[in-house]
Amino acid sequence: MAATSTAAFFLAGSSLRNSSGEYHKTKSSPIQRLISLKIRADAGDNDKEDDLQLKISRRYATVVLPVTSALGAIGRFSTVAATADEQIQCADGECGTVQLRTLSGCGLGVARYPDFVYNADGGSGSGVAQELSDGCTLLRFFPEKLKIPPVSMSTTTLLGLPLPPALKIEIIPKTLEGYLERSSGKVELNFLANFNFTIGTLYSAPPLVVNTVLTTETVQGAIRRGKGKRLDSTGECQLVGVAEVARVDDSFLNSFLTLPTECLAELKARLYFA
Questions:
Q1: DSSP H or E segment with residue 4
Q2: Which PANTHER family does the UniProt entry name for this protein (predicted)?
Q3: Any idea which of 55-64, 102-111, 236-245, 248-257 has the lowest mean pLDDT?
Q4: What is the DSSP letter of 30?
Q5: Dihedral angle computed from the Cα positions of residues 221, 226, 230 and 231, in that order, rounded to the nearest 10 degrees
Q6: Dihedral of alpha carbons 211, 212, 213, 215, sign
Q7: Res. 148: pLDDT tops 90
Q8: What's residue 253's pLDDT?
Q9: CA pair distance 265, 232, nearest whole angstrom
Q10: pLDDT of 157-189, one tens digit each?
């Protein structure tokens, strides 16, 4: 199949770096606000056209790819300039933006207890994406913008039953960064977070620190195992990670969870690049 594509777009409010390494904003003219982007794929005698959707803001344009687009297309169109503040956080080269949406179909496992079925639908986050010449894209999410639904009665079941109403585990991300291998869809992200366990106003445990690599590959610990799923053409993936959870200064929680022990995290998510 022979494929041809045409693309022409101008971005308003873009940021440039001068010879001193400082970023400054450029003024946009009316012509710079014009955006035209189209892709056509021709296969033999059958012509098929996939139009890309554009979401336009003052600082950047978000390209929404059709389902039929390949991972390679995601890579090609993911270098739209980010805001000045986001660009400064990149070492070199152009930065794009990446959005994270967490989905249902997640899970949590602790020690040898049965797995929790966890619905993280509605969680979100944003960050920067920087393409590298080796075919990888660096991903860095802003911790303060990562919102993951708590483990609670409304989101989680154990053995088919909802959790007790007062029990809640808040997930406070500290780090989420790594890379995407564009040709294969492999994703690996360093994940550091505090898991805050509470029972209403009666009990509040010290934070459980979870430090692991969330990956789309297979992970194997001493007692826990998980299998991920690589990024597909819609941006969906399954991330899994096994972490060693250390003891805390709380005898009840240490005994209840048999700390130190392993935990398994399974996160189904969708990534959007712009």
A1: strand 2-9
A2: ATP-DEPENDENT CLP PROTEASE ATP-BINDING SUBUNIT (PTHR35320:SF1)
A3: 55-64
A4: G
A5: -110
A6: negative
A7: yes
A8: 95
A9: 20
A10: 999 999 999 999 999 999 999 999 999 999 999
Contacts with 103 (C-beta within 8 Å, 6 or more apart), sequence order: 120, 121, 236, 268, 269, 270
Residue 135, Ramachandran bin (φ over 0: left; ψ between -120 and 50: alpha; else beta): left
Cα 48 to the chain's mean position, in Å?
A: 31
Q: Which residues of 154-171 are buried (b: 16+ CB within 10 A; e: fewer)?
A: ebbeeeeeebeeebbbbb
Q: What does the block give as tokens for 16?
A: 């440039």
Centroid of chain to Cα 49: 29
95: pLDDT confidence band, cut at 50, 70 and 90? confident
For residue 34, which of 61, 16, 62, 73 has the smallest C-alpha distance?
Answer: 61
Position of tokens 């009665």?
153
CB 164 within 8 Å of CB 126: no
Q: Exposed (0-12), middle (13-18) or buried (19+): which is 4, by Cβ within 10 Å?
A: exposed
Q: Is the pLDDT of residue 81 over 90?
A: no
Residue 206 neighbours by CB distance under 10 Å: 13
- Per the CB < 8 A criterion, the answer to whether 215 and 224 are in contact is no
Angle (CA) 15-20-25 rounded to 5° is 20
